Amino acid sequence: MLPLSQGGDDSFINVIALCPKDHRKAHFEKDSFLTQESLSNIVKAKLTVGNC
């Protein structure tokens, strides 16, 4: 997964829904657990299990 802002694909497979509070954390909070890597891992795990 690559964020749209970094040239990622504009498709449903490259999307994760966050509430506004967590969206801000993902962008601006230094020590947030919502890093690009952790979000990618969450999505990959869901795809592997087939929950999508």
Brief account:
By secondary structure, the protein is an all-alpha fold.
Search tags:
single chain; 52 residues; mainly alpha; globular
How do the strands and helices of this protein lay out in sequence?
Blueprint: H1 20-28, H2 36-49
Describe this structure in words.
- The protein has 52 residues and is mainly α.
- Helix content is 44%, strand content 0%.
- It has helices at 20-28, 36-49.
- It is globular.
- 0% of the residues are buried.
Give the SSE order as H and E letters: HH
Task: Classify the helix fraction into a percent range.
Answer: 40-55%
Radius of gyration, whole Å: 11 Å
* Percent strand: under 5%
Specify the overall morphology: globular
N→C terminal distance: 15 Å
Which spans have pLDDT < 50 for at least 5 consecutive residues? Answer: none
Number of helices: 2
Category by helix and strand content: mainly alpha
Main sheet makeup: none
Mean pLDDT: 80
Tell how many strands the DSSP assignment holds: 0
